[in-house]
Structure formats: C-alpha cells, structure tokens
Amino acid sequence: MTRVALIDDHESVRLGLEAACARAGTKEVVFSGSSVRQYLDWRTFSASAPADVVVLDLTLGDGTTVTENVSRLVGDGSSVIIHSVADRPAAVREALAAGAAGIISKSSRIDDVIDAIRTVARGEPLDNVEWASAVEGDRAFADAQLSARERDVLRLYAAGLPLKVVAERLGIAYSTAKENITRVRVKYVEVGRPAPTKVDLLRRAMEDGLVAEGSGDG
C-alpha cells in the first residue's frame, strides 16, 4: 500500500484526489492539508513515517517558496510530485532543482494523476508531456547551471544582503561567498545573460525563480 500525502490549499482538489486514491485501492491517503508545515507537524505529533509520495501544489498561499517546500519534503524522506497548472516555468525549474520527481497538470485526468503516483512510488522518473513542455521549451532552464551553493549565495545576495552577511548566514568564509558570486557572474556571461551589477544579479535571480519579484534592497 502506497502511503500518500496531499498538500494543496484548495480543499476541493484534495477531496477529489482522496476519493481517487480510495478507488484505486492500493493507495492510502495518510495526510491531507494546506501546507507543508501542517504535514510536518502531523509527522511529529503522530510519530508516523514519511509518506511515500507527496502530491504538492506548486504555489501555496502561506508565503512559502517552491524550493522550501520541495526541499523540506524530500529531506524528510518523501518523493514529491508537483500538481500544478504548469504555467510558471521558472517555478517548475525551481521545483526540479530542489528534487521534485516530476509534475502532473491539474488539467490531467484523475487516472493519470494516480498513474503518476504509482510511477514515482516505484522509484521511477515521471516523464510526461507536462514536465517536458514546462522545461524543454524554456531556454533559461538549460541555462540554469548553478550549483546548490551558488544558488544559495545568489538568492541571499540578490535579495539585498551584504556579502559578509550572506557568508555569515550560510556559515562559510567571506572569500568563499565572494568566489561563488564571481562564478555565478561568469556562468551568466557564458550563457549570454551577463549580470555585471547587483541589480543585474537580482534580475537574473528573479528570472530563474530564485528570488520573488519585488525583492531586493532597491
């Protein structure tokens, strides 16, 4: 029996998926809620094992980011399927980089969603039209070759923090943070998206879904 968690801030979506999982007979919905925090709190209080598969809405209404949500769930031991309209390539790229197993469109037949859960539960990659179209047609996805550390440094630096503070927050040397920013700038130049100033870095970070629009120190 595959243990499934549903995280979506639209109750009607969750109820539909719960009913479909019940009909499938091989999937048990162990949690249904509107945020990753609720799910992790439930895990703590119930002492339950992590769900095999978490079906996660791409954008929740609690102010959390895609990277935060996917990273926390994957780090907790679950495979993650993004359940979304898949019309935000930057956010889809971010989900992939954070470790999501794939994406299934909210316009898909419910049987296709159940098949996607089955596929990911077997440990197989989810290769479907929605996932491919969300990333392959977006030039910036191919350009996103930053390491995890470079992404972390860029995210904080582009959001307005001084490089010294970025280094302190990440627990790395100032020289390491500076070297990471230098490498980030070089990589953006190599793909034809130069970012010589901090404002340019903020723009690139927003384009790649690392920083929300409106962030930065102005």
What does this structure look like?
The protein has 218 residues and is of the alpha/beta class. The chain folds into two domains: 2-137, Rossmann fold (3-Layer(aba) Sandwich); 148-208, Winged helix-like DNA-binding domain superfamily/Winged helix DNA-binding domain (Arc Repressor Mutant, subunit A). It is built from eleven helices and five strands; from the N terminus they run βαβαβαβαβααααααα. The chain has helices at 11-24, 36-46, 66-75, 89-98, 110-121, 129-136, 139-143, 148-158, 163-170, 174-190, 198-207, and strands at residues 2-7, 27-33, 53-57, 79-84, 102-105. A five-stranded parallel beta sheet has the order 2-1-3-4-5, with helices on both faces. Helix 8 (148-158) packs across helix 10. It is elongated. It comes from Microbacterium saccharophilum. It holds the Pfam family GerE. This is DNA-binding response regulator, NarL/FixJ family, contains REC and HTH domains. The modification 4-aspartylphosphate is found at residue 57.
Radius of gyration: 19 Å
Number of helices: 11
Q: What proportion of the residues is helical, as a percent range?
A: 40-55%
Main sheet: strands, sense, barrel: 5 strands, parallel
The average pLDDT value, as a whole number, equals 84
Low-pLDDT segments, ≥5 res? none
Q: Supply the number of structural domains.
A: 2
Which strand order does the major sheet show? 2-1-3-4-5
Shape: elongated
Assign the CATH class of the largest domain: Alpha Beta
Assess the beta-strand content as a share of residues: 5-15%
N-to-C span? 52 Å
